[in-house]
Design goal:
Blueprint lengths: L1 H17 L26 E10 L2 E6 L5 E4 L3 H10 L7 E11 L9 E13 L15 E6 L2 E7 L2 E6 L3 E5 L11 E6 L5 E13 L4 E11 L2 E9 L3 H6 L1 E7 L2 E7 L4 E8 L2 E13 L2 E9 L2 E12 L2 E4 L1 E4 L2 E4 L5 E5 L21 E3 L7 H13 L8 E7 L8 E10 L3 E9 L4 E10 L3 E8 L2 E8 L2 E5 L18 H4 E6 L9 E2 L3
Length: 509
């Protein structure tokens, strides 16, 4: 019995000793899922520069940039170009809504391409200020010549100018870059109503070889007017331009967003420096897309979508050739440099000019082009000048390299002075700009500018006053101007420096 118990116990003991747990199975880590995503689309980006077309291919170069983009020119773009350009490959100035995109895989020799969706303005290079043209001094402007009128909208104010009057109106925020018909209704302080209708459409001035992407119509107490229009440059683009810095651990990254939409992305680590270049785009004040197309000489396709808070840009991922790569740890954040904390400075467009004191008097012989401009002024306004005569001097008031014609009519009196007309210099001839009453010569050019036009100093009975350009014209009436110290403003350039002219020329040709 005892023996049998031992025999039964022994196997149980052996079983207990041999029943150690088996090794845990090896669990293989699953690879992170591959997230594929198309590159971001930023519609209605704003660009300007030089465009040309020939042999079925379009080319665009942005202002202040050396990069030339290939453009797939659609029928509408080709048709506008053929109306403005004299021959294939003729360079024209262009403003448009479009987008920079990465090139397709089949276009490996090209890192990026430009798409032009809607043309806002096109002009022969010689007929336009081109990249020197101010673009942030208005939200929308329009004009017509038969009869003469102009509108300039900026900072919730609408200035309407005709031969008879200059009027100011208030306007609420409106989308002046719309692809739909836009109606603006407003009433000024005198109770005078005005209706402005803006409609996308082709509008040409083939005489001056210019195109605008909007047709405009005005209904006012002064009559009905029609003409062409163009939108200004949105402030949102200017908010992003500048220098940005990011520091984390042993990595310092400098990001530069240039006004011509080029990008520099320079990353410094203990192992060296990497420079990437590309482009940026936006259509929102809170979001900018950076496209990196080159690392040295190598083509790359990397995209960072930044979100803006105050002066900082941040992102949590990189789209590398349509594969999303999350940024580990903290988001990649950049702080804007050379700006006060919490304050965004917007550059005000201004031409820096140097002046040398000069006395400018009328020539002894009639200037035929000025005579034609004055004659046309009366024709357009259906007025017979009869025996009215004129005298004129020339000076570049708006810094575009072309002289304006400053004209005095012999409608003069000792007390009230003379009537003055100003004609803007064009590639061919002159275009009416302003009519100003009660001017006593001489007229002094001021150091100050408004909308890139030099102000003018005139002498009244109480002293000297300043005539400021309002985006459309100088003021018609001079009686309510403030008195200033001439020496604080004068450039020393005196128009009609000898006073009221003694020699006059007939207007009729």
């Amino acid at each position: 019995m005892r023996l049998s118990s031992l025999l039964l116990t022994a196997p149980l003991f052996l079983i207990a000793c041999s029943s150690t747990p088996p090794p845990a199975p090896v669990v293989e880590e699953k690879p992170a899922p591959v997230i594929k995503r198309d590159f971001a689309k930023i519609l209605e980006g704003n660009f300007r520069g030089q465009f040309s077309f020939g042999d079925g291919k379009g080319y665009f170069k942005a202002c202040d940039a050396n990069k030339e983009f290939s453009v797939n020119a659609n029928f509408a773009l080709r048709n506008i170009y053929e109306q403005i350009a004299s021959s294939p490959y003729t360079p024209v100035y262009i403003e448009f809504a479009g987008e920079i995109t990465f090139s397709k895989d089949s276009e490996k020799e090209i890192d990026s391409v430009m798409r032009i969706d809607r043309v806002h303005h096109m002009a022969l290079a010689k007929a336009s200020l081109q990249c020197a043209k101010p673009i942030d001094t208005f939200l929308f402007k329009a004009n017509g010549d038969d009869p003469y009128w102009r509108i300039n909208i900026d900072k919730e104010q609408l200035f309407f100018s005709t031969k008879a009057s200059n009027q100011a109106y208030e306007v609420k925020d409106s989308n002046f870059r719309t692809t739909q018909i836009n109606h603006v209704f407003t009433t000024n302080k005198k109770g005078q109503k005005l209706k402005l209708t803006i409609q996308p459409g082709h509008c040409y001035d083939l005489k001056n070889k210019e195109y605008w992407g909007y047709t405009t119509a005005v209904s006012s107490v002064w009559g009905e007017f029609s003409g062409c229009g163009e939108p200004g440059w949105p402030i949102v683009d200017q908010v992003f331009t500048g220098y940005y810095l990011s520091k984390s651990n042993n990595t310092t990254t400098n990001l530069t967003l240039n006004a011509n939409y080029t990008v520099e992305y320079k990353e410094k680590t203990l192992d060296g420096e990497i420079l990437k270049t590309g482009f940026w785009k936006t259509n929102s004040p809170n979001r900018a897309v950076v496209m990196l197309t080159k690392e040295g000489e190598k083509n790359i396709r990397q995209e960072l979508v930044f979100h803006r808070e105050g002066l900082a840009l941040s992102t949590t991922e990189i789209n590398d050739a349509n594969i999303i790569k999350p940024i580990l740890g903290e988001p990649l954040s950049f702080n804007k440099m050379n700006a006060k904390e919490g304050v965004e400075t917007i550059k005000v467009n201004r031409i820096n000019r140097e002046f040398i004191a000069e006395d400018i008097n009328p020539a002894s012989e009639v200037d035929i082009e000025i005579q034609k401009a004055v004659n046309d002024y009366f024709k357009i306004h259906r007025t017979d000048p009869k025996d009215t005569k004129f005298s004129a001097v020339k000076y570049d008031l708006n810094g575009d390299g072309r002289d304006e014609a400053i004209v005095l009519l012999d409608w003069c009196s000792e007390a009230n002075g003379c009537e003055m007309l100003i004609f803007e210099g064009r590639k061919q001839g002159y275009r009416f700009s302003s009519r100003i009453s009660r001017i006593h010569a001489p007229v002094i050019v001021s150091k100050t500018q408004h909308y890139l036009w030099q102000s003018l100093l005139i002498e009244k009975q109480a002293g000297w006053s300043v005539l400021k350009f309002d985006g459309l014209s100088y003021p018609i009436h001079t009686r309510d101007l403030n008195v200033i110290n001439k020496d604080d403003y004068s450039t020393g350039i005196s128009l009609f420096s000898n006073g009221k002219p003694t020699q006059w020329f007939p207007i009729k040709m």
